[in-house]
């Protein structure tokens, strides 16, 4: 596979949405994961999110953002046919290095509770669950 990783742009949205829909365990949110939501993310956090392609086919993505204090990774996804080749690790390394340039204290990510393969991946990659926190959310 000839894998190319580059900055995500809004023109990638249709391929991004198709990749998410084809990947079990991805929780697509109607507002934040809409074209407009991804446009806001990219505008507010330029140069942080990446996509991976094999030829003209998107095979991976990693959304990255920060609030000035903490970094966040969201929807780190690799198509099943491209797994086990280091695509996710390469995208994560790029995003983490770019977040590091903002002098943030931590990088956080969320994993859907029953997504065992994602949890296993993150544990193997050296990440750990935060046992002292529980995420609370409120719809706007």
């Amino acid at each position: 596979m000839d894998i190319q990783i580059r900055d995500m742009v809004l023109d990638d949205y249709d391929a991004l949405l198709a990749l998410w829909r084809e990947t079990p365990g991805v929780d697509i949110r109607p507002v934040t994961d809409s074209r407009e939501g991804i446009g806001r993310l990219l505008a507010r956090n330029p140069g942080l999110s990446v996509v991976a392609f094999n030829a003209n086919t998107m095979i991976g993505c990693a959304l990255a953002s920060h609030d000035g204090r903490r970094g966040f990774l969201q929807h780190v996804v690799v198509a099943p046919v491209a797994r086990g080749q280091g695509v996710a690790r390469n995208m994560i390394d790029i995003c983490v290095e770019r977040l590091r340039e903002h002098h943030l204290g931590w990088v956080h990510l969320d994993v859907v509770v029953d997504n065992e393969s994602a949890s296993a991946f993150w544990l193997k990659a050296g990440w750990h669950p935060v046992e002292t926190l529980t995420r609370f959310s409120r719809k706007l």
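The helical segments are 13-22, 35-44, 87-100, 116-124. The chain has a mean pLDDT of 94.
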